[in-house]
Specification:
Layout lengths: L1 E11 L3 E4 L20 H12 L3 E4 L6 H16 L8 E5 L4 E2 L6 E2 L4 H8 L8 E5 L5 H14 L5 E9 L16 E12 L5 E9 L8 E4 L12 E4 L1 H22 L9 E4 L4 H14 L13 H4 L6 H10 L13 E8 L3 E8 L3
Parallel strand pairs: 4-7, 4-8, 13-14
Antiparallel strand pairs: 1-9, 2-3, 5-6, 8-9, 10-15, 11-12, 14-15
Helix pairs in contact: 2-3, 5-6
Protein name: Ketoacyl-ACP synthase III
Keywords: Acyltransferase, Transferase
């Protein structure tokens, strides 16, 4: 049988560390355009209590999203030990393309994947660049697409990248600006023939486009007098929180059932992370649905020191664990892990992945 196997991984985290103190002098407004009467110290303290985010990374001014995507890609290619000319596809999950650091204009022509191919110096005309705009679940959906290409026998090697520079897409007067951050993660997914199943075992994607479509949008600033970008991330935090807790745990449970697995068969759950409180609640509800309590360290966390890096969160976390840089978390031979995400539209997706024996 042909398996879809991750053979290399990499990530890039910007050098600029931004702590919560950075936001103390910001002027924050509510959704009705009224300035909040709380002090910056009160707002940031409450924010950290809820999200556990202490700091995040912002991309350097001289770099674009396509640049940091390339940095992560180079690491993954080197880790896989392949010739980049052998790649059949480069799939890049992102949300805003390259964002100009001054004018905050969004640039997706040429596509991010085409720019990455160019940056890598790939001459192979049959290496197809493909962009995936799917909200925060974009990298996992790109991984699923790469898997489908391999299973359909139209690809042997696929570079899958998740990269965003969300610090350039936020509304500086919206408290949610403190959540978002920048980064890139990448893997090489290869076709591997074996007499047993491993690699990607199963996957599922759900897309909610009813009222949920308005939970995460691009919008004008909550500050009616703001003269900057007219397209900023606008998140209805309470709506998102309720949606996630209601829909993500049963989606993962159903995927496990479809794969003939129990929650006890899973060694790690790598969740997209925007809010630590929300992730803890997701894991608690998932295990409770099986009548069980979540084991310690089942869900690695990075949001506290990296913030919400959107499509980069899960591949970055995967690479950190794989290379021993997120202690005490480790991957072992034959481990089964879940990669799962939820985000704009709203989309939910998950992959069950098994390491080789």
């Amino acid at each position: 049988m042909i398996n879809s196997v991750i053979t290399g991984s990499g990530h890039y985290l910007p050098n600029r560390i931004v702590t919560n103190e950075h936001f103390i002098n910001y002027e924050f407004f509510d959704d009705n355009g009224n300035r909040l009467d709380k002090t910056g110290e009160e707002i940031t303290r409450k924010f950290e209590e809820i999200t556990e985010i202490r700091e995040r990374r912002y991309v350097e001014d001289d770099l674009l999203n396509s640049d940091i995507a390339t940095f992560a890609a180079k690491q993954a290619i080197e880790d896989a030990g392949i010739n980049p000319e052998e790649l059949d596809y480069i799939i890049v999950g992102h949300n805003f393309g390259d964002i100009d650091p001054v004018g905050h204009q969004i640039d997706i022509m040429p596509s991010i994947s085409a720019k990455v191919k160019h940056n890598l110096g790939i001459n192979n005309l049959k290496c197809k660049p493909y962009d995936m705009t799917f909200g925060c679940p974009g990298w996992i959906e790109s991984l699923i697409l790469g898997h489908q290409f391999i299973q359909a026998n139209i690809a042997k090697k696929v570079l899958v990248i998740g990269s965003d520079t969300l610090s350039r897409a936020v509304d500086p007067h919206d408290r949610s600006a403190m959540i978002f951050a920048d980064g890139a993660g990448a893997v090489v997914l290869e076709a591997k023939e074996a007499d047993h199943k491993y690699g990607i075992l199963n996957h599922e994607t759900l897309s909610y486009t009813g009222d949920e479509l308005a939970f995460l949008t691009n919008s004008v600033s909550v500050n009616p007098n703001f003269k900057g970008s007219v397209k900023n991330i606008n998140m209805k935090g309470r709506k998102v929180y309720e949606f996630v807790l209601k829909n993500v745990p049963p989606a993962i449970k159903e995927l496990l059932a479809d794969t003939n697995l129990d929650i006890d068969d899973i060694n790690k759950i790598l969740l997209h992370q925007a809010n630590a409180k929300m992730d803890h609640a997701m894991i608690e509800r998932l295990y409770k649905s099986f009548g069980k309590t979540a084991p310690e360290n089942i869900d690695p966390m990075t949001v506290q020191f990296l913030g919400n890096t959107s499509v980069a969160t899960v591949p970055t976390m995967f690479d950190l664990i794989k290379k021993g840089d997120l202690a005490p978390h480790q991957f072992h031979a034959n481990d089964k892990i879940i990669l799962a995400s939820v985000g704009a539209t709203m989309n939910i997706n998950a992959v069950i992945y098994q390491f080789e024996n």
